């Protein structure tokens, strides 16, 4: 009986110590990553010319992020985070010579505050999921792909971000991060190439690092 009580006491003290150590860890983090955004093709309504689908290039994209942990246990941790992602040049292709309907490219900006949950945050490898709501802004080339002035305008819409990934600790303060985020947002304004859709998925596949302080 005495030995059982001793074991229980040791277990309780160990658990308290682990939680206390976790609570003393650095709670802020800043990070950055590089990757590419993948956008599905979209068919153009009532198109009777070649190139009747809108194709997007896989634009090289970077993001920066800030997060602060609010609740940490050995099993899971919750952090508030802000994601800023910028795709400076996504090529666009649709139509053909004599049928200029889309600009040659677009720029995308996503800003999405939200929350992230890390599992087993005190170990060397920590899976995570995230969710956030913010906005997306698209601007586009002034000229159409096959010549002519682009009648489309810059647009801003609500954006929902959902992500999943993995953190791998390199040092006590530096970790690598990889994952996939889906920015579900409005479509770019293409008046000459209507798709009948109002929103699209923008899948950001990335890898990078962050520093905790």
Question: What attributes does this structure have?
Answer:
eight-stranded antiparallel beta barrel; Porin; mainly beta; 213 residues
Describe this structure as you would to a colleague.
There is one protein chain. The protein is mainly beta and 213 residues long. The protein has a single domain (28-212), classed as Porin. Helices cover 10% and strands 57% of the residues. It has one helix and ten strands. The protein has one helix spanning 2-23; strands at residues 28-39, 42-43, 53-56, 60-72, 76-93, 105-119, 125-140, 155-169, 174-186, 199-212. Strands 1-4-5-6-7-8-9-10 form an eight-stranded antiparallel barrel. Strand 4 and strand 5 form a beta hairpin. Residues 1-24 have low confidence and may be disordered.
Q: In terms of quaternary structure, what is this?
A: single chain
Low-confidence stretches: 1-24
The CATH topology turns out to be Porin
CATH class: Mainly Beta
How does the major sheet shape up? 8 strands, antiparallel, barrel
Portion in beta strands: over 45%
> What is the arithmetic mean of pLDDT?
90
Discrete helix count: 1
């Amino acid at each position: 009986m005495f030995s059982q009580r001793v074991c229980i006491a040791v277990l309780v003290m160990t658990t308290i110590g682990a939680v206390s150590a976790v609570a003393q860890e650095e709670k802020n983090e800043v990070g950055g990553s590089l990757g590419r955004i993948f956008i599905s093709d979209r068919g153009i309504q009532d198109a009777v010319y070649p190139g009747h689908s809108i194709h997007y290039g896989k634009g090289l994209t970077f993001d920066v992020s800030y997060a602060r942990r609010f609740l940490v246990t050995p099993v899971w941790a919750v952090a508030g985070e802000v994601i800023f992602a910028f795709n400076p040049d996504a090529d666009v292709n649709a139509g053909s010579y004599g049928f200029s309907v889309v600009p040659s490219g677009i720029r995308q900006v996503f800003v999405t505050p939200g929350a992230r949950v890390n599992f087993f945050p005190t170990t060397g490898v920590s899976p995570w999921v995230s969710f956030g709501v913010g906005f997306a802004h698209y601007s586009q080339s002034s000229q159409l792909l096959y010549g002519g002035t682009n009648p489309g305008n810059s647009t801003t819409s609500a954006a929902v971000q959902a992500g999943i990934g993995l953190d791998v600790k390199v040092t006590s303060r530096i970790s690598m991060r990889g994952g996939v985020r889906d920015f579900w947002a409005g479509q770019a304004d293409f008046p000459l190439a209507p798709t009948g859709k109002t929103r699209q998925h923008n899948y950001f596949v990335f890898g990078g690092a962050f520093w905790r302080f």
